[in-house]
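ok so i was messing around last nite and threw this chain in just to see what happens. nothing serious, just curious
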Amino acid sequence: MKEERWLRIIPVALIMYTISYVDRTNITLALDKDISTMVHDLAMDDRMRGLGMGIFFWGYPLLQMPGGYLASRWSAKKFISLCLIFWGACAIGCGLARTFHQFAAMRFLLGMAESGVLPATTVLLANWFPRAELARANGYWNLCQPLAVVTSAPITGKLLGWFDWHTVLIMEGALPFLFLPLWWYFISDHPREATWISSDEKEFLETTLKKEIASVQPIGKPAILPTFLKLEIPVMVVIYFLHNFQAYGCMTFFTDTLKGRAKEQNFSGFESGILFAIPYALTAIIMILVSRHSDKKQERRGHCALVYGMSGVSLIASLLLKQHFWISYAFLCFAIPGPFAAIAPFWAITAETMPRYTMGLVIGLVNAIGNIGGFAGPYLTGWLSKKTGGITLPFAMLAVGMLVAAGLCFLLPKAKMEPEVSTLAVPNASVQ
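result:
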């Protein structure tokens, strides 16, 4: 039979993080002048629209390291529960805003409220899934990113057709409060605290995870500073910056490109929506394949480099063939999945190579600085597009960034794998 933790921990974590991404996709649609009155109601020009979206990432670094630290030293379950309450209140606050400054303040606080969730959840998964399963666990959980785009965008679009933007943001902002009881019921911080798994599986997981932690834990008194002085930390920061730089920059241009081509090709609104969703559906498939293969081969760096390289090369090919819409579009479909597919092996590296008492802090630091790329990507691509009057230079910049990230992956550390702790073999377990 399948291990229940795959059916209990992963889906609940996926739904929780998908809810956080709803707050990112719904604001994109609410700020679309063609389907919402938000821009008019808050007297926003294009600069203010960009600021309203980007200010989310200004607050995003603030709780990254505290979130990782508290998840490691206190409780990931309890910390994320507090985040759900905080970000639900801020998301509803966005819907209650009556001026641009009120909206911008709520978006800033929303970014801060959601900022600790990724490092805390990554720590939680490392408490439940040994190395042989960790890339899959991270990959399945992070399916929320493409799935949120595919599922929430059409729903939000429909709601904006039925209700005003205030009501839609308040309704979707209340989701964390509705989900909190389920999170509290289903999630435990460690196998030893769970009453819903067998004693054999519990003992196996605790023993295996202790061995894996000991293999990267230095002997003697824990020292945090030496970890942050290692070369791989700034390398991870740069890679993750370029990762988010491409993911959000490419998303912005992909939307604009489809809008322009929709008129040229006489696409309907529904057809444009399908074209927008296809690469994110493909992304989910590639994420699963990469995470499974990474666990099977117990290799992380090469898998990250491969999908980053695929993204960079595909962007360049799409650019060179932009006169042929369908060929260019096909390459874009393989350019978008790169950063998403790299998430699973990328975050597995931290759990496999770093002491547990610093892992949460490192994840928080990398995610905090790296997510600045989520602001810089759309901003710089938009600025270059305005300066040059086209997408050629912005696409080239995003592609080069992906190729640089691919090369930097080989500076990341390798895990010291031990046969007795790297292969999971729980009786009656068949999850692959």
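not much to say yet. Residues 418-432 have pLDDT under 50 and may be disordered.
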